[in-house]
Amino acid sequence: xxxxVRSPRAVTALRRGAxxxxxxxxxxxxxxxxxANAAGTAPTRGEIYRELGVADQPVDYVVLVDTSGxxxxxxxxxxxxxxxxxxxxxxxxxxxxxxxxFDNRPEERYIGPAGDAAKIVSRLPKAPNxxxxxxxxxxxxxxxxxxxxxxxxxxxxxxxxxxxxxDPPRGSDYPKSSGxxxxxxxxxxxxxxxxxxxxxxxxxxxSGATGADLLGKVVENTLxxxxxxxxxxxxYLRRAGDSTRARSAARLLAADKGxxxxxxxxxxxxxxxxxxxxxxxxTFRSATRHAPLTVSGVRVSADGVPLDVTGVPKQLTLKxxxxxxxxxxxxxGPGAGGLPYRRTEDARAALRVSxxxxxxxxxxxxxxxxxxxxxxxxxxxxxxxxxxxxxxxYFLPAVFSALAAALVLGWLWWRSVNRxxxxxxxxAVPAFGVExxxxxxxxxxxxxxxxxxxxxxxxxxxxxxTAEGPRVDLLIRYTPAGASGQPDQxxxxxxxxxxxxxxxxxxxPHEPAVGPGSGADAVAPGTGRS
Length: 530
Hints:
With 530 residues, the protein is of the alpha+beta class. It has helices spanning 8-30, 45-52, 76-89, 117-122, 136-147, 180-193, 214-218, 233-252, 362-365, 395-418, and strands at residues 59-66, 96-102, 106-113, 155-162, 197-204, 222-224, 261-265, 270-272, 277-286, 293-303, 307-310, 315-318, 323-332, 343-358, 378-379, 384-390, 425-430, 438-441, 446-449, 456-466, 469-479, 488-492, 497-500, 503-508, 528-529. The strands form five sheets. It has a six-stranded mixed sheet, sandwiched between helices. The chain has a five-stranded mixed sheet with strand order 11-13-9-7-15, with no helix packed on it. It starts with 7 loop residues before the first helix and ends with a strand.
């Protein structure tokens, strides 16, 4: 097959182009979007890490370096040595590093605190073992053993660099790349992951480096990074370090997950809104321990009482755990309802707050850390009591006056119907016998009479509507002498006759009244008019 030939200058240009493209890709993958800090921009992930003190949180790093004979090819081992120093320089003295090489067997080169990258790298052998095999199983066994110590940190990473496949020497406890020994490794890693944040980063340094994938079979949370060339190793190691710091941040921020902003009336005592306005206070609280929270589009109102609430800014930012109180103006108050009589009205005004809750840290930490901040503001506490004197002082007097007027009008109407003025003369004689008739003069609205025959009675009118027009009938009630109980009653039409209680009554509508001294006296003694 014909092999293409490139000039050294072309090769150099290609390598530089690949390096620039790789750096740009890593920048997109690892540099977060920028949230707002004092300069008005969003804080970077590094600034958030410093705020959280992530650098002060100890992390365990176990770095497994393949020193088999094949690592000498293409300058792989020398590149590993140089790039490891850059990676280790990004750690702090709070971190713990275990540097382990492996070929025929694993060997601890350095165990101790980070902080002196040159010292740690100097413990690596100057060259790989020319006849060394690649026992990845034994290397992983040694890595887990290191992380199983009692003083291990809460966050741990296993970084493995190899250019080959699992090719153990004779007598290895891991003769194959599967089986019972590997199952035991997986169980140990799972138990370790239950008490610590354990992750793996495998960097295969050659196209045939299938052994790197074995780390993912042991440590469940493993990312297999695939640099295109050994020159990309430094950038990929930085990614492993950044991922570890992100896990430390996530562990610190676990207490903030699902926490947001609450709001409540500061004092739920009585507010007098008789004049239409009063003051109150609303307190906003952040429930987070680390992350700042911002509420935008804030709008405060009340349920249960028609109130306008003003005095809270449209946007507010709370530091972790901060409480902030705002004095607000209340306008409105309880209404008079259907009957506007003067009275004291109390109503419970439940606080309502709308707005969008977010954190300037969210975009910078995504997708490694999801704070799951509730979108809205949660309202807590009791409602506010709103009190007001409502209604008119003139309402009840006006109502009573109207009722009195209606009663008077009703009574006048009733009297005009049931007690119209009487006119004419009513005569009364025994139904059987011949006697001089008693004459009862009709005037006023009611006339009482006592006939000579004895007994007593009354006469009053009742207005009726007939086909011929309105008329006034006479209602005659009479109780004969010696009788008891309710009087007998009869109706006599104008100019008509009627009989009740043994007396015959005749109405003379237009007959003039009889003068004094007449033989037929007007009313027997004891009668009266009303």
